[in-house]
Amino acid sequence: MTTYGDLSIVPRTLLGPGPSDVHPRVLQALAYPPVGHLDPQFLNLMNEVQELLRFVFQTENSLTIPVSGTGTAGMEAAFANFVEPGDSVLIGVNGYFSERMVDMAGRYGAVVRRLERPWGEVFTPEEIEDALRAQPAKLVALVHAETSTGALQPLAEIAGIVHRYGSLLLADCVTSLGGLPVQIDAWDVDIAYSGTQKCIGAPPGLAPLTIGPRAREALEKRTTKVPNWYLDLTTVAQYWGAARTYHHTAPINMNYALREALRMIQEEGLEARFARHQAHAELLWAGLEEMDIGLHVEPQYRLPTLTTVRVPAGVDEMAVRKTLLERYNVEIGGGLGALKGQVWRVGLMGYSSQQKNVTLLLAALREILGR
Amino acid sequence: MTTYGDLSIVPRTLLGPGPSDVHPRVLQALAYPPVGHLDPQFLNLMNEVQELLRFVFQTENSLTIPVSGTGTAGMEAAFANFVEPGDSVLIGVNGYFSERMVDMAGRYGAVVRRLERPWGEVFTPEEIEDALRAQPAKLVALVHAETSTGALQPLAEIAGIVHRYGSLLLADCVTSLGGLPVQIDAWDVDIAYSGTQKCIGAPPGLAPLTIGPRAREALEKRTTKVPNWYLDLTTVAQYWGAARTYHHTAPINMNYALREALRMIQEEGLEARFARHQAHAELLWAGLEEMDIGLHVEPQYRLPTLTTVRVPAGVDEMAVRKTLLERYNVEIGGGLGALKGQVWRVGLMGYSSQQKNVTLLLAALREILGR
Q: How far from chain centre, in Å, is Cα A277?
């Protein structure tokens, strides 16, 4: 059979929708020899990871853990645990990942109601209230930071409304956590998840998840078993809680890496980190404007972490991405779903959010586009 | 809030039921900077990982992939995709992980029939045939290598019987793949999964899975959507197949590590690797016998990768494990479920299967037990 050589990969600068670049300190932690998942040293590290995740989520929720899969496993854990067959779920659909929520919730037997907005726009508190007044729901699901559109959905006011109508609020924070404010307790979000490979600055492989008191109560009141063994929070919580009951083997090395990435967030400080993401995004936006290239999302709802850039008329968007990758070793993303072919997606997240990356990308685009 | 120091973990020698020690080459590959999950370099690496997995599984199955989770995610993928509500599933229950199968299959709506054997024993082809003759089943599930008991379930003859009765054969190979023969095609197993952290020699985080032609046909004939979005093989297969359609972000770095671990298996050769595992297991067994310590499983069904050691009368099994860990930095496992308190579990898997580890463990046990 074929024999294979040493791992040989040309490093890239990752400025797409994720994964983002990973700091050498995090890669070094990743490569530390594993210990057992019940080793007291690992149990101690789990406590630290949980404490640090609470810090980044800005929450006191005891059930705050890294789910053993990538971001989508976080979404799956959210729907698997909080939907029972026949439950009514209201989903704000304005992008690729909210469409994924619709599909996923349906698989768990939810009666899904779609509230729709064009891709790149967000929902007003009034729209959510009108929808709940018309018909109640057990769960309202929104994407805080839509990776497919670059739009930022404000949540604080909506959370109050959702609770007034007796619903739980579930938020997808995959492209926000660690890059812009995610205030689980202050906003009163019940269920939120993210991924490690975007603004957190670790490789892909874990999905931070936090569950608030109302949601825990709902979990305890389930009348059916969670139809997903691997992601069943009623049992996973016993491994991450005081009992430390074996559930499944945790991805040990990914937890080493996550701890280091979270520690770097703590060192930088949340406010400074958010300001850095905002400043580099604004540099990018100004540079694109100078080149007369438009942005897809209105300024007031524009994500600092992921920018959807309108492909200028007459430009072959795929050829530009190919040139960026092959000649410059820079990755940016193409459009997904409704925005396919219409936008590029530029991520400035975690360690990728650096002045030098903005300068490089703008200069490379100028060379390629001749602007 | 608390601040946290550098990652500071005392390395262990991992001789428990997994994770096992990881070779420095694999850890080095793990720490290589990530590229995007649609980068042509990563797509090429995915092809290599699949080829190498087919080599280790001894199969031509095109749908042979690493599932994005630890070993239990492999089990979950197997049941989520091949069970529809009302399907009859026959499970051979003779240990902790076959009990897990029962729980999991039930969550997917299976009508589960238990065929039981004491923990540490295995099923004869006749028993399987009698059970299927009495009542057919869509799926027969067995654990090839029971991590909780140390027993090895022969599969070749059973596969023929299972197919004669029109059923699919599902095998848990978590503690066998890469450490002893797993011949998917020669034995004609339809669905098999494993974990990366045992005999494969990589950290935990991926679950190798292979699906044969009969099972693929069954998948295509499903009348309901797979009730698990993250592990839905009908869509995951499109990312791992020619289309390369984005499904979820793959754990990039874990795939680097898996490639390197599989490459090392190829370099060593399967036969040589199995012989190494067998030889070190026999050394361990002989050494324990010399100390007058018994083994739980009959020689003809004894796993070379995981040995269940009977705790001698009057010995505090937990104190021995604690001393091994704290004084010698050696990890072994305790008993699970029905064998709790009665056995130690000693794994000699992957990079942990070395002469020096056998010698060390026997010597340490002699010191601790005074034998």
A: 15
